[in-house]
Design brief:
70 residues; mainly beta; three-stranded antiparallel beta sheet; globular
Amino acid sequence: PTYEIHLEQGQNVLKIHADTFVKGVYLSGPDGVHFEKNFFDLPAHTIIEVPYSGALRSVMQVRLLHCNQR
């Protein structure tokens, strides 16, 4: 699977375009701050916009959660 992930730091918006089903997204930043958002199995090739908390000053890791995880 391939993903395009665009992080717009100014607006705290993460844009994801994946060619597979996506169940959710997990962002982690410094100081153990993290943000998780679950979706209802969005179909492939959907552009997902995820507004995330301003407490996440900089995003260090982005994980996409799929149907088979958790």
